[in-house]
Amino acid sequence: MDLADLSEQQKIIQHLEREGLKNIIFTNCVKDENVKQIVPMVTALVGSSYRYHRGENAEYCIMVIGVPNVGKSSLINSLRRQHLRKGKATRVGGEPGITRAVMSKIQVCERPPMFLLDTPGVLAPRIGSVETGLKLALCGTVLDHLVGEETLADYLLYTLNRHQLLGYVQHYGLDGACDDVVSVLKRVAVRLGKMQKVKVLTGTGDVNVIQPNYTAAARDFLRTFRSGLLGPVMLDRDMLHTPPADP
Ligand SMILES: Nc1nc2c(ncn2[C@@H]2O[C@H](COP(=O)(O)OP(=O)(O)OP(=O)(O)O)[C@@H](O)[C@H]2O)c(=O)[nH]1
Ligand SMILES: [Mg+2]
């Protein structure tokens, strides 16, 4: 919830409910915000489910699932901090594929005794559209170099400009908003001192030229965005304003 623009939170909830999702909690697993709401909600849901006859076994064992790099492992660690005052039990990292296998169950609560299974992130085998794919990639669900850092930076710049989120102008000391990714990355690279030597093959011999390192600049742009320094963003904002498709 700390990185997302939640100014239209009710619309987001309505949209998710139309897709069949219920019992939504917005959390920040780094600062443990709203995490305490989870155990009571899960306990009530399991308790009211007809599928469980838990007369003998009072333990809850629940699987945490989701796309890669969304914070599944962070959620488990945060629950442990909140309910057990215990440290990290499962590895967290800023790129997809940190959790590689279903882990053994991790206790997150004493009363009720609740255990969670951490799982590797999964993506649907087919992504609906190129734009959906770019949004997922911008959130770090696939390794950046597989899509291309510059391609991602281009989509990020397009999104920020469309949403009128012009924090990047000040952050990188640019003259103004710009929709040309090459000139933005050039300015970013120069500002950060990210230059590289490139060999140019000419008819009269090789010449070394110094030019901006566009990939390094793109990486910095993505990292800055993902750390929230360019402001909260709701990548699916347009979806909230389009009427639901006919069933
Ligand atoms: N700002 C912010 N960052 C978060 C939050 N939750 C997790 N992160 C960060 O997101 C990154 C991914 O977190 P993980 O917990 O490893 O994500 P995961 O879903 O387990 O990832 P995989 O195991 O690779 O599928 C890490 O850099 C976390 O610090 C959050 O609520 N807010
Ligand atoms: Mg994980």
CATH-derived architecture of the largest domain: Orthogonal Bundle
- The overall number of domains is 2
Number of separate strands: 5
**Overall shape:** elongated
**How does the helix and strand content classify structurally?**
alpha+beta
Given as residue ranges, the uncertain stretches (5+ residues, pLDDT < 50) are none
Bound molecules: guanosine-5'-triphosphate, magnesium ion
How many separate helices?
Answer: 10
Task: Please tell me the overall pLDDT.
Answer: 93
Gyration radius, in Å: 22 Å
H-E string: HHEHEEHHHHHEEHH
Widest β-sheet, arrangement of strands: 1-3-2
GO cellular component, one term: mitochondrion
Protein name: Mitochondrial GTPase 1
GO biological process, one term: mitochondrial translation
GO molecular function, one term: GTP binding
Give me a quick take on this structure.
The protein is an alpha+beta fold and 247 residues long.
Written account of the structure:
- The chain is α+β, with helices and mostly antiparallel strands and 247 residues long.
- The protein has 2 domains: 9-117, no CATH class; 130-240, Conserved Hypothetical Protein Ylqf, Chain: A, domain 2 (Orthogonal Bundle).
- It is 38% helix and 11% strand.
- It has 10 helices and 5 strands, in the order ααβαββαααααββαα.
- The strands form 2 sheets. It has a 3-stranded mixed beta sheet. Strands 4-5 form a two-stranded antiparallel ribbon.
- α6 (149-162) crosses α9 and α8 (181-192) packs across α9.
- The protein is elongated and about 85 Å long.
- The model has no long low-confidence stretch (mean pLDDT 93).
- Bound molecules: guanosine-5'-triphosphate (GTP) and magnesium ion.
- The site of guanosine-5'-triphosphate (GTP) has 22 residues, from α3.
- Keywords: GTP-binding, Nucleotide-binding.
